[in-house]
Each structure stands twice: as structure tokens, then as C-alpha cells.
Amino acid sequence: MNNYTAVEEFILLGFSMDPGFQAFFLAFFSIFYILALAGNSLIFMAISLNSSLHTPMYFFLANLALMDIACTSTVIPKLLEGLVGKGSHISYKGCLTQIFFLTWVLGAELLLLSAMAYDRYVAICRPLHYSMLMSRPVCVLLAGSVWVISAIDSFVNTGLLVRLHFCGPNQIHHFLCEIPTLLPLSCSPTTLNNIMAVIGDVYFCVINFLFTIVSYSFIIASILRIRSAEGKRRAFSTCSAHLVVVTLYYSTVIYTYVQPGSGSSLENSKVVTLLYTAVSPTLNPLIYSLRNKDVKVALRKVFPCVC
Question: Is residue 2 part of a domain?
Fold first, then answer.
């Protein structure tokens, strides 16, 4: 075996090192993190504590809120630690831990968006069979499968990273550890890692995206057959929020995990990653729930002095 010095920590280069920009980014990410935690926590508590919201749609929204909390908590605290002057170093084990949880949450959210698309398809295209097709056991099975399947994928990809040797350089041109940013630093062959990453991309991104598109093709066709303008408006209102989130989430994740990780795309990738690790978890409560009358009523019941 060739001699090598194992890397014990990585340096996250992140954004600009200018002190003025560091202060701006610290305030920016702190605000987004607080808003994401507060908004998603409110949504989860309102849905959990209000029996009128114990329906399939809100059950999936509660799971989405948990995923958004996990996503921001996996990335933003370490980023803030570097911005307050404690250094942008992350240990080897810390880097793999971040990759594991981030890969788990990202995969789970992509699968959950497909489950939510299926829920809307059944509600609009097969309303008479909705209570049977989206019964509580079915919803629990779908949500459980989302978490388990994404966890297995994360275990596999993280396990494949453990077998690699990292002997330098140890600088990651990003503000977090991700599979596309870590693989180029390996001193070992990464063919198997790349193959598994492609398989994961095809399943989580391509197949689920196509499933969502097909579901909404049927939904739109069904809505267009509704005669009343009010009926069309109500049907579209239940799907528009989900379409916005699907478009934002899939476009950013696909860009990060499919586009080449070199050249000017590295800087673009940082901005795009922000969209699904900080911006999207912050906006999801507003897009999905806080503008919903039922959720507002539930929030007033749970937090009368706040709402």
C-alpha cells in the first residue's frame, strides 16, 4: 500500500472572507435560520395539536416541516460558527455526519413531494375513492417509506465515502460538506461512489420528478373539465403552492447534483445550495400553510396571544 497522511479535518472556504461581508452573511443566515425554525415549528405544532387538521394533506405538511427543520439545523449552525470567527474547520467525522443527515433529508423531501403530488391527484381526480386510497394506514406507510428509503440511500452513500482515503488537499470550496464537493478530494478511486450517486440522482430526482409531472398532468386535465369558474379556482389553489415548491426544490437540487462541479459553477452552486438549505425551508411555511385559512384558525387556537 502507498503511504499517505489521512486528513483529519477539512476547511470550508464558504463565501467571501471580507469582514464586512462576514457580518452581512452572519445576520442574513441568522434571520433565515430563526424564521425557518419558528415557522416550521409553528406549523408542526398547529397540525399536531388540532384534530381538524389531521388529514392526509396536513399530515404530509407536518412531515415536511420536520424535514425543513432538520435540513437547516444540519447546515446553518456550522456555517454561523465559521462566520462568528470560530473557524471554518470541520472534522472528518463531522463532515461525514453532515453529509449523512443532509443526504437523508434531501432525499426524503424529494420523495415526500411525490407523495404529496399523489395525494392531490387522488383528491382531485378520484375524489370518491379518496378516503380509501388515502386512509390513515396508507399515509403512515407512505411517510414511513419516505424516511426509510432515503435513510437507506444515505447509509449506502456515506458508507461508500468511509472506505475512501483523503490525503490532501483538504479545502472544500463550499460552505458545507456534500458528496459532489468531497469526492474530488479523495486519493482513492471513486468509480463506485459516482455510480451510486448517479443511481440516486436518477431515482430521487429524475423518476420522482417525472412522477410528479405525470400526476399534475392528470390533475390539470381534470381541473380543466370542471365547468364552474369557482370550482377551477379552488382546485388550482390547492395545487399551486405545491407546484411552486416542486419547481424551486427540484431545479436547485438537480443543478447541484447533476451539473459539473468545476469552474464558475462552483460559485453558482453555493448560491443554489442556499435556496434548498436556507431559503426554501423558510418560505415553505408561508407558501404552504401560513396563508391557509384552516392553519390560521388552528394557530389562533394553539397560540391565541401570538395570532
Answer: no
State the Cα–Cα distance between residues 65 and 23, nearest whole angstrom.
29
Name 91's bridge partners. 9
As to burial, measured by CB atoms within 10 angstroms (0-12 exposed, 13-18 middle, 19+ buried), residue 203 is middle
Our count of domains for the chain comes to 1
pTM, two decimal places: 0.87
Task: Give the Cα separation of 306 and 46 in Å (integer).
Answer: 12
What CATH number is given to the structural domain containing 282? 1.20.1070.10
pLDDT tens-digit map of 169-216: 888 888 889 888 888 888 888 899 999 988 988 888 888 888 988 988
Separation of alpha carbons 121 and 150, rounded Å: 23
What is the domain range of residue 135? 9-302
Q: Considering only CA atoms, which of 247, 239, 30, 5 is closest in space to residue 124? A: 239
Q: Which of 58, 223, 246, 240 is nearest to 124 (CA)?
A: 223
Residue 291 belongs to a domain: yes
Give the bridge partners for 90, in sequence order: 10
Note whether residue 80 is domain-resident.
Answer: yes
Q: Is residue 204 part of a domain?
A: yes
